[in-house]
Amino acid sequence: MTILNSKAKMLTASLLLAVPISAYAADQGETEQAAERYAQSASGEARLITAGASGISSAAAGATGVKAAGASLTDSLQGGFDVAATKLKVPWSMQFAGDTVYITQRGGGIVEVKNGKQTVQEVRTKKALRVVGEAGLTGFVLDPNFAKNKYAYIYHAYEEKGEGLNRIVKVKLVNGVWREQKELVDGIPGGRIHEGGRLAIGPDGMLYSTAGETDRRELSQDLSSLGGKVLRMTTSGKIPKDNPFKNSYVYAYGLRNSQGLAWTSSGTLYASDHGPSGAPIPGGGIDATGRDEINVIKPGANYGWPLVIGNETAPGLTPPYYVNGEQAIAPSGIAATPDDKILVATLAGQSLKEFDPIAKTMTDVLTGEGRIRDVAVHNGRIYVLTNNTSGGKPGPDDDRLLILK
């Protein structure tokens, strides 16, 4: 498998014009405690062997594992990437309508990338966007019939009576403006960190959402709260009759800060989850670090946070499918490839990784571009959103949308 590294020469598409200022002021103050620790030791963990100016490298067998044999989408990569968009302001999620890409910015606005041009489109919601720390405009997914109805769904933070919260809203693209049509769910716990926020439409046509525990770990085990959960609903905001808990959006619980959802061809739902990051524990003590997870999500399952961490387990709990180790990578968006591997965007890990669900190994695909927030597979190509304008060291063109070659 080719590993891409920005230290070498890259083939770059014509750089696009700078993005206008978003409709909302961006807050770039997110801090993820593990990022700095990882940056200081990343070269040691990844164990990359660079092949010179071509930018092609290979990973030595070791901590990240060796990918199982067999052709895959990443095996076809030749090295390098095209830059499809530049100067994005804390990008979070991307969606595709034909050759057009739509990208949410946490500080507000959705960037349309079309025919070599970037345009920031306003998002008009009935409750004002709250931008604090990791809270803002995050999750985004187009309706399956977007080409005809122009509907989409967003996850955004707001404030009510001084309390930070999140909501899921149906919007419609009208004359270049995304306008709220209907509020599907409100009152999802919010704060400054651990906001979750990933949205996805499942093979069953249902709308799924991750919701973080907002640094209130007790919420993850509280079935009356939507925090620390995977939620499931219809695209009109109704609770499906086959949800595991009666009259509840909760589909799975015991999660910390899940930011990635993806289905493989078998219909298996995978979710990424941030492990503890060495933070103080309420009541005393310090969390361990790392133990980031890839989970196979099953209806009604309890994934254990904060009762257990990483590979720990107890009766009635569902253990993670994969635990990365003691070095935090902070997995964010994930995407399934046609050969049923899972691409994983990592923040503290500052890389795009590939997870093999059969071998249960994690290997590097792209390094050297800093923090990676989201990844997608579209028309046989891999798209990556960098996230250096939030907690990283942005370059002059950050943040960028990259298309791997």
TrEMBL record:
Glucose/Sorbosone dehydrogenase domain location: 88-391
Coiled-coil region(s): none
Protein keywords: Signal
Extent of the signal sequence: 1-25
SUPFAM superfamilies xrefs: Soluble quinoprotein glucose dehydrogenase
InterPro entries the record matches: 6-blade_b-propeller_TolB-like, Glc/Sorbosone_DH, Quinoprot_gluc/sorb_DH_b-prop
UniProt protein name: PQQ-dependent sugar dehydrogenase
Source organism: Saccharibacillus alkalitolerans
